[in-house]
Amino acid sequence: MLGMIGRRLIQLVFLLLGISFLVFMSMHLAPGDPASVIGGPNATASDLEAIRDSMGLDRPVLVQYFDYLGGILQGDFGYSYQTNQAVTEAILTRFPTTVKLAVASMVVAVVIGIVAGIIAARKQNSWADVTSTTFSLVGVSIPNFWLGTILILIFSVNLQILPVGGLNSPFYTLDGMKELILPAITLGTASAALIARMTRSSMLEVIRSDYIRTAKAKGVRKRPLIWVHTLKNAMIPVLTIIGINFGSLLGGTIVTEQVFAINGIGRLMIDAIAARDFPIVQGTVLLVAGIFVVVNLIVDIVYTLIDPRISYD
Amino acid sequence: MSSAVAETKDGLKSEKKKQSRFVEVLKSLVKNKLSLIGLIIITMIVLVAVFSPFITSYGPYEQNLESTKLGVGSEGHFLGTDNYGRDMWSRIAHGAIISLVVGLSSVGIGLIGGIVLGLLAGYYRKLDNIIMRIVDLLFAFPGILLAMLIIAMLGTSLVNVVIAISIWSIPGCARIVRGSVLSIKNQEYIQAMRTVGASDLRILVKHVLPNCTAPLIVYGTMRMATAILSTSALSYLGLGAQPPTAEWGAMIAAGQDFMWDAPHISVIPGIAIMLTVFAFNVVGDGLRDALDPNMDVK
């Protein structure tokens, strides 16, 4: 077990190095001269030369990459071309908002998904099952930016009970919770749909297994049979889906932040892409991809703890 | 002469077999209610896209500033008009063309790239490690992030969205193909082909690739849904199609400023995206059940 974790951690280091190299090179291969972005439209040739010289842009790309890597290890991701703000600072001020949104959406997704899945599996082919199955099919097909727009139309524009956007108050206050509801539902729906679907099929598979029949025959009542005996084993594939989904949820925050005008990492990234502010793009992409691979590793390790039958050796 | 006749007979037989397999899959798709609904929706969208010049009375970019923001059911504009007085139905129909073309081309390019890499990785041990590490690296990005990185590099345009989604489709396809190659490359009939001197290319294309067809069809269908959804998301964010292009995602973004007085400008394109994505998803599900219930391509 420890050997597996050790091996995976070494792989993780290489993967992170690979990600940083890919991100750095793709920004370097991009057409356009960073010096002219920094210098602005009025910069003369000698100004541009001076900028290139001061930023070391005239050095070989690999030297620049290792320099960048050295900086990352010390928490220095460079400076924004547009505002000259440190990328680390720009990210750190916005990161908590994105985490808040991602966690709230995950909670929405897990609660709705698992409950809908269990209800559907307990009464197969009932109206509850049909509703849950329809939800899981439609949920993955709805464009989340559109769902967000519709929710704003209903709850903010027409009913005027929830705010249109922003995520400015602390989440434990009433205003903070109100602000979180629509973005969390918007982002969590697709994941909830997938989780519901997986929970349903996994529960149905376990319910039909021999050991559940045996437990039934031995007189275990229905409630503990579902909640204790069935759920525990049925949750293993569901955990996989939850883990995988965390990645797409992180990706999804980028879009959701735009819909609700939330100042998180996603908006920072989109604005930077539009302005060709490469240090910010590099920093934000690295951060999200880094979290994604680390979460995947944690999920893999958690599987082996939950189910000793799974082995990566 | 007789061998030529036998070959033709064999050819006919395999043609018939292929046909009956196709009919079998189609029958099973039609039997499944949801897949049938999906098939009908896809057929309708394709028909709307193909015949859009004949079934619309206005051009998708034809402005009429005297009849802006007309609601659904207005005379002459059954889906209403947008803030420039452009006919919503014409724009939705034109958007169907864009979605289908972008979806098909990005999935097509992605599949070709994935098939080539998967075949090479599975068949040649020396290449396996390098290719699969690159694939792992691409998998390390949440899909939409990878697409954004590529767009950040190439610039914002619909063509670059196609490139980005193509690259995003490659790793999944490469894994499927590599898995299939690995499972059959040591089977006796492949070794026999090698013994009689068949070239690697022939073995790969004629004997190995057909074994991957079923999972690739399912993967391709599911990817169409993802591609259409992502294209609209990227365009919504301003990274794909730019206004005034009648792309569904860009239309939702443009209509957001008029949510108070003309919500239909954003609502209708959203329904179009949802129906299309839903249709490809359920047909993909149906195909998976029809082709191989144990297949796992997600």
What does this structure look like?
The complex is a heterodimer of chains A (313) and B (298). Chain A is an all-alpha fold and 313 residues long. Chain A is built from 12 helices and no strands. Chain B is mostly helical and 298 residues long. Chain B is 73% helix and 0% strand. Chain B has 12 helices and no strands. Chain B has helices at 2-31, 33-50, 52-55, 88-123, 125-139, 143-154, 158-184, 188-195, 200-208, 213-236, 248-255, 264-291. The model of chain B has no long low-confidence stretch (mean pLDDT 88). At the A-B interface, helix 1, helix 6, helix 7, helix 10 and helix 11 of A face helix 5, helix 6, helix 10 and helix 12 of B.
Tags for this model:
heterodimer; A: 313 residues; mainly alpha; 12 helices; 78% helix; 0% strand; B: 298 residues; 73% helix
What proportion strand of chain B? under 5%
Low-confidence stretches of chain A: none
In helices, the fraction of residues of chain B equals over 70%
Q: What is the terminal-to-terminal distance of chain B?
A: 49 Å
Largest sheet of chain B: none
Question: How many alpha or pi helices of chain A?
Answer: 12
How many angstroms separate the termini of chain A?
8 Å
Instruction: Determine the structural class of chain A based on helices, strands and strand pairing.
Output: mainly alpha
The total beta strand count of chain A reads 0
Q: Which series of helices and strands of chain A comes N to C?
A: HHHHHHHHHHHH
Uncertain stretches of 5 or more adjacent residues of chain B: none
Indicate the radius of gyration of chain B in whole angstroms. Answer: 23 Å
Largest sheet of chain A: none
Number of helices of chain B: 12
Shape of chain A: globular
State the shape of chain B. Answer: elongated
Strand content of chain A: under 5%
Q: Largest interface: which pair?
A: A-B, 46 and 44 residues
